[in-house]
User: Which sequence fits this backbone?
């Protein structure tokens, strides 16, 4: 940004609010089976809680929470997790992304197995969306941050 | 169903959209666009599409506003001039004609939730099982998950969601490749500016 006015009110409010947004994002991802929401919405909420601290406190403080270099690897890890669920089904003899064949947990079959693999997929989607939204923000502001460091 | 609520939301939405076009300040129009997104999210909820409304509220009213404001700050802003007043009548006529065409087209659509449309027939016109009614009847038995939308997104239509994730990843990687400068380019720029300063 052009100039950052250090306002203690904004900083304190965002410091109090950000953990609750992050907790609610994790809840939305984990509770997507029973309530509206899921990986995409929860991931966007996790990203916005990180972006709130980044906007108010600046990148130097915010990088203690979430490093600038983590965004893109986290996104790739999330998409790989999604892809891996499909490949596990292929390894156990089913079609790609056929969750009936996600036989990683012993003793669970049928509908419960599909439910579990949906949970893994939602976590992957959430990680991917969070990482990529934060990394786009960092890429857009990269030049300014570098000038700050000099 | 809740027509009073829907009309109120739509009036506020049209007002927010008009404000975001009419205002001179780009920041004001960014804020009114997020207001418009949030009103659209509320009207999606009144239509019963809670998941879509949730996504619109989180993405449209939350993250997109931040990105638009960053883009405004990062780019040069030419002072807004009053231009384009030449073919004013012709432009207005084209706009109204297009709006009339859209309204005329919308009269051919079936009402929301109408059971007699071909979309909701079971079996479908081709004689197969209709996808929508299959999902509604079998989602819980198939995947032991009460939220039908989650089952459709992650299980029945897993390929589509995977493609969506790959699109998001591609967007992030493009931003990474275009905007993040390498160390060599940074060094070159610094050398160039040093030469210039000397």
Assistant:
């Amino acid at each position: 940004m052009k100039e950052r006015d250090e306002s203690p009110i904004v900083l304190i409010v965002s410091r109090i609010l950000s953990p609750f947004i992050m907790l609610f994002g994790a809840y939305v991802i984990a509770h997507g089976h029973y309530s509206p929401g899921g990986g995409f919405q929860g991931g966007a909420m996790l990203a916005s809680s990180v972006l709130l601290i980044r906007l108010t406190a600046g990148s130097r403080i915010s990088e203690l929470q979430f490093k600038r270099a983590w965004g893109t690897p986290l996104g790739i890890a999330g998409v790989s997790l999604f892809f891996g669920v499909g490949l596990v089904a292929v390894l156990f003899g089913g079609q790609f992304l056929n969750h009936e064949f996600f036989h990683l947990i012993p003793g669970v079959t049928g509908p419960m197995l599909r439910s579990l693999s949906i949970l893994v997929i939602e976590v992957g989607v959430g990680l991917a969306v969070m990482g990529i939204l934060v990394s786009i923000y960092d890429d857009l502001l990269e030049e300014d941050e570098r000038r700050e460091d000099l | 169903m809740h027509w009073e609520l829907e009309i109120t939301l739509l009036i506020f939405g049209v007002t927010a959209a008009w404000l975001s076009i009419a205002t001179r300040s780009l920041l004001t129009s960014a804020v009114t666009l997020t207001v418009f997104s949030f009103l659209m999210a509320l009207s999606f909820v009144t239509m019963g599409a809670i998941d879509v409304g949730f996504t619109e509220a989180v993405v449209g009213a939350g993250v997109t506003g931040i990105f638009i404001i960053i883009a405004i700050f990062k780019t040069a802003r030419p002072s807004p001039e009053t231009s384009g007043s030449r073919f004013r009548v012709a432009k207005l006529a084209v706009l109204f004609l297009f709006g009339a065409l859209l309204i005329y087209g919308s009269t051919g659509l079936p009402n929301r939730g109408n059971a007699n449309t071909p979309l909701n027939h079971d079996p479908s016109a081709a004689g197969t099982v209709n996808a929508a009614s299959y999902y509604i009847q079998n989602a819980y038995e198939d995947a032991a998950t009460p939220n039908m939308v989650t089952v459709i997104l992650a299980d029945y239509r897993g390929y589509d969601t995977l493609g969506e994730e790959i699109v998001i990843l591609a967007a992030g990687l493009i931003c990474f490749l275009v905007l993040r400068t390498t160390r060599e380019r940074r060094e070159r720029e610094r050398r160039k500016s040093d030469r210039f300063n000397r």
